[in-house]
Design a protein that fits this description.
209 residues, alpha/beta, Nucleotidyltransferase, domain 5, 6-stranded mixed sheet, 6 helices, globular
Length: 209
């Protein structure tokens, strides 16, 4: 089981335990509203407490839904990356309000008494769609307005690199997930949970594994 070092007691708020959820989305454009969230995948990556981060098996507790588009607009290149059939989703996709309500319920169930944290690589795109959809269709976010961890930033900080110099190809091989990146939202959420566990356990460059 991968585990990070304990946090110093002065940096923890009382009773603060984080449930880290790897989240990936597939969408058909650059921003929500004019464009649509098409699929949402999530996997429990682990839990952070005063003793450090304990990784979970990311295949054990997962969530996946495909959503009905909310607009007619789409960017063909973005849609192609997702591999999803937009016409099928217009007919068969879940209504966003239902899908996001189900997601919120799942987040709360798996988090229990811990505070959920959304994790992504990079998180900015996924968080933009997820937070907008949560507020638009449920009126709230189980992550609050800032419960988001960007794995790209985490690596940059640990490696001592400028953020814009970071890409997965620049990471040491032992940090990279064994699973492929398929652009299926659940596959990629599980894959990125593995990356998060490796990053949390990594002490930084020039130190023993």
């Amino acid at each position: 089981m991968l585990r990070s070092s304990p946090a110093p007691p002065w940096c923890l708020l009382p009773s603060t335990v984080g449930e880290y959820l790897s989240v990936d989305v597939e969408a058909d454009g650059p921003i929500p509203g004019p464009y649509s969230l098409l699929s949402l995948g999530a996997a429990v990556a682990g839990r952070q407490d005063a003793d450090g981060f304990t990784a979970a098996d990311p295949t054990r507790q997962t969530f996946y839904r495909e959503l009905r588009p909310i607009s007619d607009g789409f960017v063909p290149e973005a849609l192609a990356v997702s591999g999803l059939d937009r016409a099928r989703l217009v007919e068969e996709g879940l209504e966003p309000a239902l899908a996001l309500a189900q997601f919120t319920r799942w987040v709360r169930e798996v988090s229990g008494d811990a505070q959920p944290v959304m994790c992504g690589y990079p998180a900015s795109y996924d968080w933009t769609f997820l937070y907008w959809y949560l507020i638009r269709f449920t009126g709230e976010s189980p992550f609050g307005h800032s419960g988001c961890l960007d794995m790209k930033t985490l690596y940059a900080a640990k490696a001592g690199l400028p953020l814009r110099a970071v890409a997965k190809r620049s990471m040491p091989a032992h940090l990279l997930p064994r699973r492929p990146h398929t652009h299926h939202a659940l596959d990629d959420a599980v894959e990125q949970a593995e990356l998060l566990a490796n990053l949390m356990a990594w002490p930084g460059p020039g130190t023993p594994r």
